[in-house]
Amino acid sequence: MDDLTKPNDPSPLNEASLSSLAATLPVPTYDRSALTPGIVHIGLGNFHRGHQAWYLHRLMEQGKAHDWAIVGAGVRSNDAAMRDRLLAQDCLTTLIELRPDGTSAEICGSMIDFLPVEEGNGALIAQMAERSIRIVSLTVTEGGYFQDAATGSFTPEHADIQHDVAYPDAPCTAFGAIVAALKLRRASGAGPFTVQSCDNLRGNGTITKAAVVGLAQLTDSDLANWIEEHVSFPNAMVDCIVPATGPQELALARVLGVADAAPVTHESFRQWVIEDDFCAGRPDWDLVGATFTNHVHDYEAMKIRILNAGHQVLANAGELLNVGTISDCMADPLISAFFARVQSEEIVPHVADVPEMTAPDYLTLITGRFSNGAIRDTVRRVAYDGSSRHSGFILPIVRDALEAGTPVSGLALCEALWCFMCLGTREDGSSIEANDPIWDLLQRTAAAAKDDPQAWLGLSQIYGDLGANERFANAFASWLSHLHDKGPSHTLAHYVQS
To answer: Residue 231: which residues within 8 A CB-CB, separation 6 or more?
Structure first.
């Protein structure tokens, strides 16, 4: 399916159209009507459908895991629109692989239902309480775990958590719904399920456990102790670049012959490294390329530091210079040189090798993936929620570098670029729209930092005590002053040439 020169007459995507679509696209060969649910997934975005759902689909194609089908769920009001789109096409998804040398597609059928998105999450709680559900997985973004950005600890003060404490049977968060379902399962004898985070967080299972057990402790200490003893929270590393879906992706699906209201485009690379800690069983994902290991943290660190931190190195510079996508950033001589120097001098030295890959070799792999012009991954998407992404991806490296006495100048510049970006104006004078859950606070603080750089580092919920480190604070202040005096292009050139 590499010839995209002629648009096809698109067929609506649904169960009834699979037989006709099979003439041009790979479609599920298993009997979807015979699938039964084993997984509830909360947060049905593109990444889940292009990653975990794909691994399960591949396993089903081998005649396995037919009792592990996915039931989708969401706890945010805007999840309802995704539910409507997917139910209208029988929860099928067109996965479109974008390679520099061509494009191909397939239809993924491992998801079989999407629960109502409703206040109090009654349907979600009831489904998770069913004995057949053995895994509850999540993609709720890096900022969705109610953790202190500086320390990583659970933050029960959040208004949503306080709501769930007051109304434990009608919670508003995914974690409140999980606690409520586990309470029902303990009472009924259905037993525990595994809670599996698929978000880009180092120690994502540990962080998820802190949120679930911490919330349960606030309402029912006996239940919290039962969860602590019986429920599994495996750590995992997930990886696949999956851009947001917009008009271009919808049109591409139609060119491929499918009228899909929610297609997913993705790169050809996927990786899933998981701790084998599942209290109620699991699919054999290792048969289709996943890796089960007790050394997830080394894989996590390599990916989060080189790829995810690398995304932030590129995105803030790209936004300020009005460069639209990550691949465009890699094609820009100034931004790519900035990326290469920060990575090689200040990030890679703090990344351990894994059995299959050295850190420098992984950087080479990531450089190629980021340079794939077929992937139109927008700078705006990558820069979104910098308050979570910088604290999770960049600042741990800064702390390690300060402790080791190694350079931090490029990382300090990355933070200064983020601060400067939050002023909301690009170098060409165009406006940057709000792009963070705490955008108003960031914008006010960035304005104050023009005269007092310490105001930005004083965002303790992000920087913790880093602002008190003289070496880092001085480097940050110097770069921020340079940005205000000379502008982003001149500042980046100065760093690259110094």
So the answer is: 182, 192, 193, 194, 195, 209, 212, 279
pLDDT for res 146: 92
Q: CA dist 285 to 62, 113, 165, 416, Å?
A: 11, 21, 36, 42
DSSP code of residue 35: -
> Could you tell me the two tokens for 173?
């968060």
Mean pLDDT per 10-residue interval, the chain, length 498 residues = 56 96 96 98 96 98 98 95 98 96 96 98 98 97 84 88 97 98 98 97 94 97 98 97 94 96 96 97 98 94 96 98 98 98 98 94 97 94 95 96 98 98 98 96 98 97 95 98 98 97
Cα–Cα distance list, 261 to 28, 83, 216, 268 (Å): 19, 11, 38, 22
Q: How far apart are CA 203 and CA 382, in angstroms?
A: 21
Whole-angstrom Cα distance, residue 386 to residue 268?
A: 26
Q: How far apart, in whole angstroms, are the C-alpha atoms of residue 294 and residue 277?
A: 9
pLDDT for 143 equals: 84
Q: Taking a C-beta distance cutoff of 8 angstroms, is the pair 283, 68 a contact?
A: yes
> DSSP 3-state assignment of 307?
helix
223: region left, alpha or beta (phi > 0 left; psi from -120 to 50 alpha): alpha
| Cα–Cα distance measured from residue 469 to residue 130, given in angstroms and rounded to the nearest whole number | 51
Going from N- to C-terminal start, the domains of the chain cover 11-293, 297-497
356: how many CB neighbours lie within 10 A of its CB?
Answer: 9
In DSSP notation, 441-479 reads: HHHHHHHHHTT-THHHHT-HHHHTTGGG-HHHHHHHHHH
Structure tokens at 104: 């191909």
11-293, superfamily in CATH? NAD(P)-binding Rossmann-like Domain (3.40.50.720)
Q: How do beta strands 236-239 and 111-114 pair?
A: unpaired
Compute the half-sphere exposure of residue 234: CA atoms within 13 Å on the CB side of its CA. Answer: 27
Distance CA 165, CA 254 (A): 47
Check: CB of residue 453 under 8 Å from CB of residue 463.
no
385 — phi, psi (to 5°)? Answer: 60, 50
CATH of 297-497, one of 1.10.1040.10, 3.40.50.2000, 1.10.287.110, 3.40.50.970: 1.10.1040.10
Residue closest to 415 by CA, chosen among 367, 447, 456:
456
Q: Which two tokens stand for residue 5?
A: 């020169």
Q: In whole angstroms, what separates CA 343 from the centre of its chain?
A: 21
Listed residue (213, 256, 237) closest to 303, CA to CA:
237
